[in-house]
UniProtKB/TrEMBL annotation:
Protein name (database record): Selenide, water dikinase
Domain PurM-like N-terminal positions: 51-157
HAMAP family: SelD
GO cellular-component term (any): cytoplasm
Coiled coil: none
Organism, scientific name: Lacibacter luteus
Protein encoded by which gene: selD
Length: 353
């Protein structure tokens, strides 16, 4: 296939990044089953919870982590797409407190529409991120598809006593977030050719960043629960944490980190379609206090993130241990808690000013 015009990958797919996720309410229906599932006592984390990866006991106090994640292009550059999709998939291992071991690729490519050379660049992007994570890209599988998509299946390892789940928070635990919210808004502006030149590359740089901090957080008993914020937005993933832990949560809106440019586009209602799907799936579980800019919050808190930050529950008496780690690892600007878990109430999330 020959073309003189630059190929924009985002124009060949209807979705983008983790915004491709099926809405939470629809996913609930899909996952329902009346089938009897054998109880495997060595399966430590599986379909019974809404966690980031499966975890299996392999003996001697160790467990293997297994996860997969793939999606359609969220950026136009093929190499960057491979980097972002790979970093996002590997993040699930870090979110469990584990260390990634190896990955295999999952590629769908419309071979009649897009040149194979671009798919090769996607794979090279994946190899670069796997190398940064210290793991091999050991193989994979490809199909001829109507739209391009890419991702990884990743295995990791951890000590069982360092396993971090998303449903084990305690009342009073403080919440931390390690990346700002807003990449869904920025990538939507780019897809619609509305992104200002000075905002080019902001979202991509963040989405390529590996969440390696999760492996270190796994070693801290001060961390009671952890997940990564992806397609369901900050609200959606916090609801999963709170409901799984039989708690509610308070969010301090003024302390949530946002990408500054995202607020500008959100004010113009340049937001992903997935934002509306997310909000419609869980809006009855959220309340807003007076003083909160509700319209802005509506556009940003359900914003689908791709390879978003780690959302971490921390014992209040051990916050300094986590803040010290943040300081040492270059996350000083995320040392302010964004909320806390409270006893369960009618609403799951209370957004405070």
């Amino acid at each position: 296939m020959a073309t003189s015009e630059p190929i924009r990958l985002t124009q060949f797919s209807h979705g983008a990044g983790c915004g491709c996720k099926i809405a939470p309410a629809v996913l609930e229906q899909i996952l329902q089953s009346n089938q009897s599932i054998p109880n495997d006592l060595r399966l430590l984390v599986g379909n019974s919870s809404k966690d980031d990866a499966a975890v299996y006991d392999i003996g001697n106090g160790h467990a293997i982590i297994s996860t997969t994640d793939f999606f359609m292009p969220i950026v136009d550059d093929a190499f960057s797409f491979g980097q972002i999709a790979s970093a996002n998939a590997i993040s699930d291992v870090y979110a469990m407190g584990g260390k990634p071991l190896l990955a295999i690729a999952i590629l769908g490519w419309p071979v009649e529409k897009l040149p194979a050379s671009l798919a090769q660049q996607v794979l090279d992007g994946a190899r670069s991120i796997c190398a940064e994570a210290g793991i091999p890209l050991a193989g994979g599988h490809s199909i001829d598809s109507h739209e391009p998509f890419f991702g990884l299946a990743v295995n990791g390892l951890l000590q069982q006593d360092q396993l971090k789940q998303n449903n084990t928070a305690n009342e009073g635990d403080l919440l931390f977030l390690t990346k700002p919210i807003g990449v869904g808004v920025l990538t939507t502006a780019e897809k619609r050719s509305l992104l200002k030149e000075e905002h080019n590359g902001i979202a991509a740089a963040q989405m390529k960043q590996l969440n390696k901090l999760g492996e270190l957080l796994g070693k801290l008993s001060a961390v009671t629960a952890m997940t990564d914020v992806t397609g369901f937005g900050l609200l959606g993933h916090l609801i999963e944490m709170a409901e799984g832990s039989h708690l509610s949560a308070e969010l301090s809106y003024q302390h949530i980190p946002f990408i500054d440019a995202a607020k500008e586009y959100a004010a113009q209602r340049i937001v992903p379609d997935a934002t509306y799907r997310n909000w419609n799936s869980y809006n009855t579980k959220v309340s807003f206090a007076s003083g909160v800019n509700v319209m802005e919050a509506f556009n940003l808190l359900p914003d689908p993130q791709t390879n978003g930050g780690l959302l971490i529950a921390v014992k209040p008496e051990a916050v300094k241990d986590v803040q010290t780690l943040f300081q040492e690892q270059g996350f000083a600007k995320f040392m302010q808690p964004i909320g806390r878990f409270v006893a369960q109430t009618e609403k799951i999330i209370h957004v405070l000013a």
